[in-house]
Design goal:
alpha/beta, eight-stranded mixed beta sheet, 13 helices, 50% helix
Length: 331
């Protein structure tokens, strides 16, 4: 099958990120099989000037729309796309030079209606960004659960994924919500029994958040969204989604235990954090990044775990509706 790609990139107030991403697209080893559609989601700080500077170098279209969230922005981009396969990227990624080549090769060898790609930390990233990347991708953190590539159980994430034109038409694309719209799409693809694959070599460099406060807010949003997604999609709930919340409960219990001379649980956490430090230090060849990775892991668990418990309490005990439980997800 001859594939032509349309790369859909929603952006909101981040022209500087768009430039870095477009620069990386200029360096792709495969150049003549893709178009780019930048969808400006009601930004106050627009990226049209940046986009115009690439007009004579790339096949690029700029679309401005009223703010309605990243999911709707991607849908609008796919509606006007000319390609038969859509590559969905966030504006805060940088592509290795062979990204398009690897995706094209993988889909030609094993065509699927959707694919997921991995993410890594670029050498130019700050120490905090590298630590956050470790927390979000490592087997020793919840990244090991998020990035399960076996048995078709992984979930597509909107910062790096692909969707066939057929799959878009059958699913109507992303839901009209601001958070968890990519997870929702996964469930729709699974319900239609559309095949997907994980393209290991189709990775991106994902900048994510630049400080721990932003990272906490992001993971808290993820945690708050999960019980709502479980409610929206029956039989999607898993015990593993409770792990961050259980981490918080046992970690606080370990600190209380110290007050009563019970230290074994605290030592278990100490061993775990030391393991995170050692593995992250080796992976990044930097002990300081290893230390920051311990902090990032704690922030990740507490952000997600607290958010998860907040939504569970409102849904189960206060009997709130989805929108009442987490208005930001649907505003």
């Amino acid at each position: 099958m001859i594939l032509s790609f349309s790369i859909i990139i929603p952006v909101y107030n981040r022209p500087y990120e768009v430039k870095e991403l477009l620069d990386s697209l200029l360096l792709q080893t495969y150049q003549n099989i893709f178009e780019i559609i930048i969808v400006e989601d009601g930004s106050k700080i627009k990226s049209n000037g940046i986009v115009n500077s690439f007009k004579d170098k790339l096949n690029i279209t700029y679309l401005f729309k009223e703010n309605s969230g990243p999911g709707e922005s991607r849908n609008e981009g796919m509606k006007i796309a000319k390609g038969n396969y859509f590559i969905i990227l966030d504006s805060d990624v940088i592509l290795p030079n062979t990204y398009i080549q690897e995706v094209d090769n993988a889909l030609n060898q094993n065509f699927t209606d959707a694919y997921a790609g991995a993410d890594k930390a670029h050498k130019s990233f700050s120490g905090i960004q590298k630590a956050i990347n470790f927390a979000m991708t490592s087997f020793i953190t919840t990244g090991g659960l998020r990035n399960n590539k076996g048995n078709n159980t992984f979930q597509l994430r909107s910062f790096n994924m692909g969707l066939s034109k057929k799959a878009f038409q059958l699913t109507d694309g992303f839901a009209k919500q601001y958070i968890g719209e990519d997870i929702d799409l996964n469930y729709k693809l699974d319900a239609l029994q559309l095949n997907k694959q994980f393209i290991l070599k189709g990775y991106v460099y994902h900048k994510r958040r630049v400080n721990f406060k932003q990272f906490y807010n992001q993971t808290n949003n993820f945690g708050r969204a999960r019980p709502l997604l479980n409610k929206m999609h029956k039989n999607s709930s898993k015990f593993t989604y409770w792990f961050p919340s259980l981490f918080i409960i046992f970690f606080i219990s370990s600190l209380i235990g110290l007050l009563f001379g019970i230290s074994y649980l605290f030592y278990l956490f100490g061993f775990y954090f030391m393991s995170v430090f050692v593995i992250a230090s080796i992976n990044n060849n930097n002990a300081f990044v290893g230390l920051l990775s311990v902090l990032a892991t704690i922030v990740q668990f507490f952000g997600y775990g607290i958010g998860f418990l907040q939504s569970q309490f409102k849904l189960k005990f206060l009997k709130k509706s989805n929108k009442e439980t987490f208005p930001k997800m649907f505003s």
